[in-house]
Amino acid sequence: MPHTVAILGTGLIGASLGLALGTADPETAPLGRCRVIGYDGSSQQLRIARGRLAIDDEAKTAAEAVKEADIVVLATPVQTLPALMREIAPHLRYKALVTDVCSTKTSVLQWAKEFLPSTVSFVGGHPMAGREKVGAEAAELDLFKGAVYCLCPPVNATPEATNLATAFVETIGAKPYYIDPEEHDIYVAGISHLPFLLAAAQTEVVTRSPSWREMQMIAASGFRDLTRLASGDPVMHRDICSTNRSAIKHWVNESIRVLVEMRTALEDDKMDDLQHMFEHAKTMRDQWLTLPQNQRPGEGDQLADAEIGTSISQRLFGNPAALLRGGKKK
Amino acid sequence: MPHTVAILGTGLIGASLGLALGTADPETAPLGRCRVIGYDGSSQQLRIARGRLAIDDEAKTAAEAVKEADIVVLATPVQTLPALMREIAPHLRYKALVTDVCSTKTSVLQWAKEFLPSTVSFVGGHPMAGREKVGAEAAELDLFKGAVYCLCPPVNATPEATNLATAFVETIGAKPYYIDPEEHDIYVAGISHLPFLLAAAQTEVVTRSPSWREMQMIAASGFRDLTRLASGDPVMHRDICSTNRSAIKHWVNESIRVLVEMRTALEDDKMDDLQHMFEHAKTMRDQWLTLPQNQRPGEGDQLADAEIGTSISQRLFGNPAALLRGGKKK
């Protein structure tokens, strides 16, 4: 009996999940061949997902989509989850696994506890992959290939639910990484939400200037890369900020502190202080690039960077990749 | 009589210039076929540049390199320029054009006035292209293709010198952009030096945290792209800060101001304020991407995006690749 997966929300992430499930090798993928039922509030998004074969069947409502599913993936914006959970609650199968893909987890686990019936299991999920584009038309079948996929089971999760969530993540080619929801939220605020805010800040700083008319003519790849995330969906990022306020505020504060250090060094002409900071940042980033999950070829310059990073760190420290391996991974 | 170009410093930029000169179409390039003489303080860099055919001949000293050159390109770090100018001054040909590639221009023009003889012309130059990698081994023949190339002639520049600098820029496939040196420095501080500082700040903020050991396991493409510039050469960036202190300080201050705005919005739960800021940033960046010079595929995510865009659009709409072709492809 093949697994039936309902994907609610067939945008970038939902449709990419569907493509990954549909193209997984049924011989080796833990879930085997799945039947994927899609639902989206936008009939256009649903049509594109269907046209790209990201889903096998379209459902007319969320309730219809979930009623035969043993895995239900909530792939809609975080703010919509409470209402969506309430809507599907009466229609979920006994012992179904419900999971989500939102980039904050504490609130989501609270909502699941509040709104989902005790006859189903919820395991929070967050794939560490994405694009600044939106919609099913931007979906990619290998978006999750080799990516870390955070899983946050509640304290009372059953082994069956946890195993099924793990099988789902492995079937789409990602690497399961179990993490406490509060830890997840503070870490993700630093390595994902803060980068978006800094990209938006860089864009705001220069585009608010009356000189932008001329500056825009000479802005090049450095500006383009640093601001890439600022082209992301403003509403999604507003909602992320709203559900992860205090963690994000912590990292914004830390950023202000580092920028004030830089300003002081510039004012006092302490160029050696700046150089030391730049050296530390370069060393740490180059080390990070040598981690196994950063070694895969991806969009853009990643592979090339990883190669250089490796060679530099190897020259400096031997082979640090071995030291960094084996973090908290089950 | 072909032009003779001396490139002093055959690192990333110098060797890329040599490759671009050597592969320019002699029928259509304004300078025609050039003879390129290279010199570098590192014999290894010089050997790599020669091995990659970025230069035709190796010189043993800077003085030897320039003595027959009608165009001299100073492609060494900004801090080395005063000494280098003094060294070559007695050996420069009558009416030679001297130019540089540094990312700050006010100091460089002052040094040229002070250290170069009045028998030669200096026109400051700054190609708006680069990579976070260093050395002749990272050189690319199409690094400057379609890129804006700032030119800062001094007020007393001769038309011959300005025309020759323009021909040089057009020969390597770049677009000359004339700009006042003070304006150049403040603009470049905003769109090039500040992005580096924000990349370094993001890296410092998270890697100084005791949680970095776990955060590094889930950091993904957002962190990678936002911090790419932090893998750049620390000494080069120290020198840039040192020669463009007040302009950079201005933009660091503006960044602190915007981050404080964000922090206040988070503290006061003013999510609409944040959303408006994010929308403005997205609109401005997306507009910037539509400028003609940003339409070409480049390093980083743009090339990958263009390719992915092609495959998706092909599936959806037939073959639009013809529309996208004609850019830079490695």
From TrEMBL, chains A, B:
Keywords: Oxidoreductase. Gene3D superfamilies: 6-phosphogluconate dehydrogenase C-terminal like domain, NAD(P)-binding Rossmann-like Domain. GO terms for biological process: tyrosine biosynthetic process. It comes from the Bacteria. Residues 3-296 form the Prephenate/arogenate dehydrogenase domain. InterPro entries: 6-PGluconate_DH-like_C_sf, NAD(P)-bd_dom_sf, PDH_C, PDH_N, Preph/Arog_dehydrog, Prephen_DH. One of its GO terms (molecular function) is prephenate dehydrogenase (NADP+) activity. The keyword Oxidoreductase applies. Belongs to the prephenate/arogenate dehydrogenase family. This is Prephenate dehydrogenase. It comes from Herpetosiphon geysericola.
